[in-house]
Every structure is written in structure tokens, then in C-alpha cells.
């Protein structure tokens, strides 16, 4: 759905305090993991985002009834699965939905799931998901863009991932939670979103050891019980606000954060001359003192510098005099923000997947987001730029940021997104 553009008049400092939303990327797999229990599960810390509504639609198609029981709390109940098929129309809306395959294999022993599409920043293969499943005995075939998977008996085996992958680690864990088997995953992702999903499953009675290390062992259990769980804060949203504070040379307090999940970004900001003060669940970012230093960034898997805040960081570096170099090793082509930032006066040249950024002043311009974090980068740039920026493509930004214009206004930004004009109102 097309949304109205976001208008930001920038060049003014941010101030005050902002509460960070719960994590989208932790909440999505946890909602999928709730398919494994026949009992009701209440999740707290579910952000009201379009991606969450999409995943609720997907698990709803499979048999989950849900009810919002608080502003960010939802109860999910899947007494039985009514389908083991997730059609293209649903999977194509969101790549993360591919992990329903693991959940369906666990609960029903079979799954038919469409191949997820690519996205604006490049091809995103699922070969590691497929190899992990096959390595411990799942029969899997692909035809016409559909994967059909079946468990013939208890899952057993060890899979060594060829790279660190969050989604394939989650999928491979989910498949083995129920049943009599035992599987080991080597070179598994240690991402916070893997750990949070495992903590949730273990709280319902699963037996998963080693999450947060590169070796994870899943021992099947006959059944999971219901329960209640709180999802971790969104480190990507927090990182976006930290970067926005630096780009506007402001002092901002973030509440409801996990500072330990943000250390790679905090270290870079400190290196650039931004003060970052860690509280227990809060952070103060202070860039009001003056001149920042350029720096070089290479994204890698957690706990390294995250790809999901690379575009926003590039926007910040475009405001810092001097030369910075940015390379995304997780998604080499995550670069859709570059041409749009250059429209705002940035000087970014891309050579062999590497951004060379000559920082300076930005000015407002009409721009268009082509994906979620490119959109976030444009918001950061717009807050720092003199004059008005009008950002189109807000349907992508809204995938990951709740009530953005309103929350930006609460910290001093001049931001508004007009209400859509309904056809009926135009008669
Ligand atoms: C909904 C969600 O949580 N999305 C996040 C998740 O995506 P997602 O889980 O899809 O990303 P992965 O961690 O799987 O991808 C990491 C790298 O591995 C590659 N790969 C992955 C699987 C596979 O079978 N084969 C393969 O080659 C990918 O192309 C990429 O280069 O982690 C990414 C990396 O932190 C983040 O950018 C996404 O925001
Ligand atoms: C890329 C992202 O999400 P997805 O993996 O769902 O595309 C993201 O959250 O930055």
C-alpha cells in the first residue's frame, strides 16, 4: 500500500527523551515459534508495525487465533494447525516468513512454503536453510518456486553453516524442537534475535542449549506448554535514533534499550567524537560539543557493526567533513540510499561495493525510499539537512518504525506525514 510522504524540515537539534520500540526482528520469529505450542502464549513487547500484521496474517492462515491484550501485547493460540501450506501471496510480502517451514516441520512433520522473493538490496538465498534441513534427514524438493518438506522420522545430525545466518539458524532450530531427535548446529549465528527466540522456546519447555555461542544443540521434546514472554528492545531502531542524534549534533536520551546490544555502534560513535553514556536500560548520546571525525565502517554479523544500520550510518558520515569509507560485508549491494542521499547534496561514490563518502552540508530535496533502512537513512539525512525533505516510499519505513513522525516531533523535529485522503472524502 502506498503511504503519504513524510515531510521533514531539518537543520535543528533534537532534544529530550525517546522510548525505543520492542524489536521487530526478534518479535517476528517469536510469533512464528508460538506455532509450536497448542496452548495460549502471551507476548509482550510486540511493536505495531506492518511486518507484524503480515506475520500475524501468515500464522492466522495456519491456524493461530490472536487477540491484542494491551498496546504492545498479544495473545496467540494455535490449538491445531489448519494448514501446512504458506502460499506465495503471503510469503512474498515478507522474507522472514520463510522460517514458518521449520515451525511446520516441527509441529506437523510437513510444510509447503513458497520461495521468498529478493528485495531491493539484492538476492537473498535460502540454500543454508535447505542444506541444514537435508543434513538431518528432512526430505525436501522444490518445484515451481515451492519448497515441499517432510520429516520421515526423528531428526538427527550436525550441520555446519557455511556462513553466519540469522534466519537459517532460527529455521534449523525450529524444525527440531518437537519430536524424538537431536540435532547440532555448528557455526550458528549468535545474533540477539536467535538468542531471544531460543529463550522464548525454552520458557515453554523446549530443550535448546548453547544459544549465543556458535554451537547450538536441540533435543526434541514431545510438547510445549503455553506461557508469557517479553521481547527484547529494538537495537536497530535504537541505533537509528543514536545516529539521528549524532547527525543533528544533539543530545538525546534513549530509554527502554539494551546498551550491551549496541556496543559496536557506540564504539564507532565514541571514535567519531560523540559521547555515549550507558545506563542500565538507557543511553545518552551527546554530539552537541562540536566537530565530529570521519571514520571507516565494515559491517559484519553480530556482535560486529550491523548491516541494518549501515545506510543510516552512511547518512551520518555524509554530514561529517573528511573522507569516510563504508563496506557492507553482509549485503554488499545494500546501497539504494546512495543516489537519494546524493540528491540531498551528499558526495558518495560507489566503487566495487564500497562507499567513499566526502562529508559536508546536506540540503532538503524530494527523495524516495526503496527499502526499510534506506528510508531510515533518508530520515536521518533529512533531520540534519537545511530546508525541507519530502520522503516517499514510507510503506518501507513503516515496516520497521512505529508512529515515526509523531515520535520525531516529541524530540523536537519538524516532521509531519499527512493523513491519506480517502476516496469517499473526495466525492
Ligand atoms: C527479519 C529479520 O530478522 N531480518 C534480518 C535477518 O535477515 P536474514 O535472517 O534473512 O539474514 P541472514 O542472517 O540469513 O543473512 C546473512 C547473510 O547470509 C546470506 N545467506 C543467508 C541464508 C542462506 O541460506 N544463504 C545465504 O547466503 C545472506 O545473503 C546474507 O549475506 O538478518 C539480517 C542480517 O543481520 C538482517 O539484515 C535482517 O534485517
Ligand atoms: C532488512 C530487514 O528486514 P527483512 O530481513 O525482513 O527484509 C531489516 O529489518 O532491516
Automatic annotation (TrEMBL):
Binding site residues for phosphoenolpyruvate: 24-25
UniProt keyword terms in alphabetical order: Cell cycle, Cell division, Cell shape, Cell wall biogenesis/degradation, Cytoplasm, Peptidoglycan synthesis, Pyruvate, Transferase
Active site location: 119 (proton donor)
GO annotation terms (biological process): cell division; cell wall organization; peptidoglycan biosynthetic process; regulation of cell shape; UDP-N-acetylgalactosamine biosynthetic process
Catalytic activities: phosphoenolpyruvate + UDP-N-acetyl-alpha-D-glucosamine = UDP-N-acetyl-3-O-(1-carboxyvinyl)-alpha-D-glucosamine + phosphate
Keyword Cytoplasm annotated: yes
GO molecular function, one term: UDP-N-acetylglucosamine 1-carboxyvinyltransferase activity
EC number of this enzyme: 2.5.1.7
GO-annotated cellular components: cytoplasm
Span of the signal peptide: none
UniProt: UDP-N-acetyl-alpha-D-glucosamine binding residues: 95, 124-128, 308, 330
Predominant place of localization: cytoplasm
Annotated metabolic or biological route of this protein: Cell wall biogenesis; peptidoglycan biosynthesis
InterPro entries (alphabetical): Enolpyruvate_Tfrase_dom, Enolpyruvate_Tfrase_sf, MurA_subfamily, RNA3'P_cycl/enolpyr_Trfase_a/b, UDP_GlcNAc_COvinyl_MurA
Sequence positions bearing 2-(S-cysteinyl)pyruvic acid O-phosphothioketal: 119
Every Enolpyruvate transferase domain range: 9-408
Compartments (UniProt record): Cytoplasm
Functional note: Cell wall formation. Adds enolpyruvyl to UDP-N-acetylglucosamine.
PANTHER family, per database record: UDP-N-ACETYLGLUCOSAMINE 1-CARBOXYVINYLTRANSFERASE
Record-stated family: Belongs to the EPSP synthase family. MurA subfamily.
Protein name: UDP-N-acetylglucosamine 1-carboxyvinyltransferase
